[in-house]
Specification:
By secondary structure, this protein is α+β, with helices and mostly antiparallel strands. It has helices at residues 6-15, 17-20, 31-42, 127-130, 165-169, 173-180, 202-208, 216-219, 221-225, 277-285, 344-357, 363-379, 382-386, 397-401, 424-437, and strands spanning 22-24, 47-51, 60-66, 69-75, 81-85, 100-102, 105-107, 114-116, 121-123, 146-150, 153-157, 187-198, 241-248, 251-257, 286-293, 297-304, 314-326, 329-339, 390-392, 415-417. Bound molecules: FE2/S2 (inorganic) cluster and fe (iii) ion (FE).
Length: 447
């Protein structure tokens, strides 16, 4: 019987997005799709764990997740970063019960097996009497197959078959560097990551963050009316260059910048040491750089004003992990990063600006989740399945193919389109989704 099942058909339809500009709406709330995503996407690709600056000292640790897998993100006694699967080798309970802390050892609460922060098992109560033959070396806490760091960002992959992190990020590093390497001394996370849950499928958030400039004047209209995001900074401003970066090693972003810096970061923190002239110019002159590293790590390096009466325009970098909980539930992890060498006054202002715009009660964020929850609700309906409803990703299809594609005159990698009003970035995301669901690899080798 070669009749494709519903699941196979739906996945193939996503793969056709370049031609049709459509995907089946049901992928945004479907338990069969979700189960397959855990296996094909989350168990086989590189998933963000945290930033190095969150665990600066030996013994610092924090509880994290790779999809449904609890892990411990820890700096061990030797100063090395470890990611350990948080499940005791005895009966399997989670060993870490605090969100974060500092310790040389983890002691399991059930029968008190005790592990060093390298993962090594060093304590088994009554070992001499009850476990005479046991070789404790065989019972260390386990690690994902691969753990690696890029510019302070720590990732892990459960699969040893995934390409190296270097290859996985591929050409997209050119754009990441603009956001991560512009400041002397690097960046650091302020405070703890802020977490909350939304009734949203994880892909809807990841897709929006590849660069949905189209929703800004609509969904975020109130922020313009209130001057939190002055309209002369938006994509509607005439003197703004807005570029969509598509097909960049499977990742995508959208960047917009002016000919002169609109401000936002303290002038003295910039360094051109790790950037080309063009990258350095964008790092100073941008108003926003928003993107998604497949599958679920997004970022927004953006200029906002938390309090138009008293404050100045301020930049901050928010990093997002869209942690899948179920087809209709996502836990959002939000890190706010600032230049390490900036003043405390700047860091406080950047944090306040981040919290009041892009966070759980931020005025941008509440706009977004109101509509993303709505997509998820409708996507799970019988109507959507029975009618085989499609979601539209056709914006700019004509210009994406020819006239506006500026790749040839552009220094950076990817297929770059001189417009923020086109859906090529989202098409890139869904093509990576298709490849991953078909068991193909993401990264340099695929573009
Ligand atoms: Fe951890 Fe028994 S489950 S010591
Ligand atoms: Fe938004």
């Amino acid at each position: 019987d070669d009749t494709p099942t519903r699941l196979e058909r739906v996945i193939e339809e996503v793969g056709d997005i370049t031609g049709t500009g459509e995907i089946p709406t049901q992928i945004h709330n479907d338990s069969d799709i979700f189960d397959l995503e855990l296996q094909r996407i989350y168990a086989r690709n590189w998933i963000f764990i945290g930033h190095e600056s969150e665990i600066p000292e030996p013994g610092d640790y924090a509880k994290r997740y790779i999809a449904d897998n609890p892990v411990i993100f820890v700096r061990d006694e030797n100063g090395e970063i470890q990611v350990l699967f948080d499940s005791c080798r005895h009966r399997g309970t989670t060993v870490v019960r605090a969100e974060q802390g500092n310790t040389t050892h983890f002691r399991c609460p059930y029968h008190n097996w005790t592990y060093k922060n390298t993962g090594e098992l060093v304590g088994v109560p009554h070992k001499e009497e009850c476990y005479k033959e046991m070789d404790t070396c065989e019972f260390a806490l386990q690690s994902p197959a691969q753990v690696d760091t890029y510019a302070g960002l720590v990732f892990a992959s459960i699969s040893d078959d995934a390409p190296s992190l270097e290859e996985y990020l591929g050409d997209f590093k050119w754009y990441l560097d603009i956001n991560l390497k512009f400041a002397e001394g690097g960046l650091e996370v302020v405070g703890e990551p802020i977490r909350w849950e939304a009734d949203t499928n994880w892909k809807i958030a990841a897709d929006n963050f590849t660069g949905d400039a189209y929703h800004v004047p609509a969904a975020h209209r109130s922020t313009m009316d209130l001057d939190i995001f002055p309209s002369d900074l938006t994509a509607l401003a005439g003197n703004r260059t807005s570029l969509d970066v598509t097909n960049c090693s499977g990742h995508a972003c959208s960047l917009s910048y002016f000919e002169e810096s609109p401000g936002g970061y303290p002038e003295e923190i910039f360094t051109d040491e790790h950037l080309s002239d063009k990258q350095y110019m964008i790092s100073k002159n941008h108003v926003s750089i928003v993107g998604t590293i497949f599958p679920n790590l997004s970022f927004n390096n953006t200029l906002k004003n938390a309090d138009p009466d008293n404050r100045e325009l301020t930049k901050f970098l928010t990093i997002r992990k869209w942690q899948p909980i179920s087809p209709e539930k996502t836990q959002i992890w939000n890190w706010i990063l600032v230049p390490k060498n900036a003043s405390q006054e700047f860091k406080d202002r950047a944090y306040d600006t981040g919290i009041s715009t892009f966070s759980v009660s931020g005025n941008f964020e509440v706009d977004d989740f109101a509509v993303w929850d709505g997509i998820t609700e409708a996507a799970g309906s019988t109507f959507v399945r029975e009618m085989e409803r499609k979601s539209n990703y056709q914006m700019g299809i004509g210009e994406m193919s020819d006239a506006e594609n500026i790749s040839e005159d552009w220094e950076g990698p990817g297929d770059v389109i001189n417009s923020a009003f086109e859906d090529g970035t989202m098409q890139t995301f869904y093509r990576s989704w298709y490849r991953a669901m078909k068991g193909q690899k993401i990264g340099d080798s695929n573009e």
